[in-house]
Amino acid sequence: MILRQLTVIKAIAMTIALLLPCSATAAVVKAADYSSFWIWGGVKSQPILSQAENLYILQGQIVEKRTLNKTLTILVAQGMPVARIKNSNVWLAYRVDTLHWSPEIMPIILLRLKQWQLSGNPVVGIQIDFDAKTKHLQEYLSFLKQVRKQLPKGYRLSITGLLDWSSTGDIKTINRLNTIIDEVVVQTYQGRKTISNYNVYLTALSRLKVPFKIGLVQN
After folding, report:
1. How far is CA 44 from the centre of its chain?
2. Is pLDDT of 1 > 90?
């Protein structure tokens, strides 16, 4: 298994994240040492982005909207508009508040993938940013299977994951992700801060058979 480390840069809001070779170590996380980044909306860019190998670009949030008669699932557009990205692979990232998607959601995501690709970008796939609780992982697996079925061949599927998955969850269930997704990015932070005892969980990650990266906080 190859361990890749993904770093989160934060300002007022989470802005970008970066990829660190597994051999690199540092007391302080510096953006210049990384090559893959999350790009969130409403934040100032940084010069290091010109050197990025991979960009995970926020494109929207999927939420439930309740009316008097029913509950709808909608995709709220967020993040940067379609652009020509030089020298970087592009992942389209979606924050997800609910797994109960209406039939209209996935076609919107697929259209967005096509728009980015038609603009000359090497589009890799999509990332689902959902905080699935450990005890609800089976439901999450079922959801991800449906997303995978609707994702055209050639596109990859990435998800974010919670730090305690590998230590407190059913490892057999978690490793079933290996047949569904291409990678999981394990978050070592909550809100804008690093989880104080994150290192306690890291050794348990060796139990994962799923390709993974680790989310760190800049500085």
Report:
1. 20
2. no
